[in-house]
Amino acid sequence: MHGFHQTSTRRQFGCRCAAFCVGVGTVANLIDDLYGAKSNQMEHLSTHGIADIRLLTTKLDEQHRFYEKVLGLPVALYDNELIVTAGATRIVFQGTSKADGAPFYHFAFNIPENKLALAQSWQKERTQLIQRGGKDIVDFARWNAHSIFFNDPAGNILEYIARHDLKNAAKGVFSPADILYASEIGLVVDSIPQTVKMIREELGLDVYRDNSEAFASIGDEHALLILVKRDRLWAPDKTRAAKAHPLVAAIRGLKPASFTMRDFDYRIHIDPALTDVQRRLMAEAIGEARKGAESGGVPVGCVLAKGERIIARGRNRRIQDGDPIMHAEIACLRSVLKQGGRDACKGAAVYSTGMPCEMCAGALVHWGVKELFAARLDGAPDTRVSLESRGVQVVEVSMEEPQKLIRQFQARLNK
Ligand SMILES: [Zn+2]
Question: b/e map of 309-324 (b: 16 or more CB within 10 Å)?
């Protein structure tokens, strides 16, 4: 797959709301597998993998080459962001200036529990491995897991981990398709006990198998927050001191929750799978986006609902109407005017095929919308924190169709 720039397309649109750039890679099946698995062996666990990680980098171009050419993962590059699809996880590297230092992080990918030796030889052909005590493979006996470690060009510490308690053995040689999803992200903090307490309270996640003054793991084998005390030396070779750099991570879980550590600029979200009713309402929003596409418009749609009942619908009509503010959410709220106006919106939920822009987010807040379900689109505006700080519960969902519609729309524009 080839990365691409969409800067010119974005300029044509002039507004982030319509100016999505599109990543590649199909993860819907794997996501269904992750969620579906809760009915069997994962019943007691609270998470279903890390959906999304957003990190800073000063080496966007090198990272682009590495993830595409060396690891062989689908990537998309637009403006100042590189989007890597690593199995069911989307990693966004956002470019930052060198003045911010050289951010680096630790994250791990679950691979089939029987493939570590194959992964070791595959990776060794491509990069050096970081050894511990002269050995490539690190045995985490208490976790019943084995791992290998290596660096990307930005100095991130990557890990493939084979967790033998997971029933995810697979046949065949190792390939990039065996990078299933990210299951660990490191958070460097000053007080481990205090952070553990906050995460327990705010995210409802509990300690996995470690909880000391210098190191703790929180969550489960599908998604672990690895808490490391600042300046502790990172595993496996213990040569680099842990430093804190801003990050955002979204974990698939059962109950929506958000946790922000302002001192470190960390944001962790838990996004649940949709119920059948929510899926149906999201499908209605996608239907609106599709109608928008059919009439030559930006394919973004939404519906406003109370419980199961749809009160209003909207789709982006900026192009059709020549009206710069006619985004899907604005169109939807305008149509509510005819049916009770603001009162009808109080406590309602909006289902949208992408995160709203700042203007639409403000409108939703002013009109008393309580919940927002939004498909996660590459290049979409980042209004989540602002919405949550103003009392709107936000759930982001990984879905293929909204992304596909945008991709087709952009292909038409670029012709
Ligand atoms: Zn908007």
Answer: ebbbbbbbbbbeeeee
